[in-house]
Amino acid sequence: MSTIPARLARTARISGSAEDARKRVIQLYRDWYRSAPEICSLYALNVTPAYVRQCIRARFEEDRYVTDTRLIDILIQKGRQEYQETLNCWKQLDHIMGILLAPRGRPQRTFLQKFYEGRDEDAVLPAATGIVHPKAV
Q1: 123-134 burial, b if ≥16 CB within 10 A, otherwise e?
Q2: pTM
């Protein structure tokens, strides 16, 4: 497929309701989902399109419970921008592997890093979770 920058361009829109925002999110998700094989071929990735789809779903699941329509509009705009940049080959392989496909999460910290912060969050669990820390039993 040829790279035409204006091919994927969309004008910025403001959602009138939560239902409108939901439709736009679903359309963005479908665009990403359908382009997974193309992303694998464009960037010659050593992963399957199924893995790319799994990573795309994980990114959307992170923001699943956002209810503010203004914030949803911003996330949609950022998602469209990432989609356009990805399919127009404006990213390097490191961007795809490191930004899109890498799992997000807090990096592992050493004991000293936790000590310097003044707390050990791994040992502290909120009481409302109902989880009993294995060392406390």
Answers
A1: eeeeeeeeeeee
A2: 0.70
Determine whether 82 is exposed, middle or buried from the number of CB atoms within 10 Å of its CB (0-12, 13-18, 19+): middle
User: Terminus-to-terminus CA distance in the chain, angstroms?
Assistant: 60
DSSP string, 46-100: SS-HHHHHHHHHHHHHHTTT---HHHHHHHHHHHHHHHHHHHTT-S-HHHIIIII
Integer-rounded Cα Rg, in Å, for the chain is 19
CB 10 within 8 A of CB 80: yes
Q: Is a pLDDT exceeding 70 seen at residue 90?
A: yes
Q: Residues 101-121: what's their mean pLDDT? A: 71
Instruction: Residue count of the chain, please give it.
Output: 137
CB distance 48 to 71 below 8 Å: no
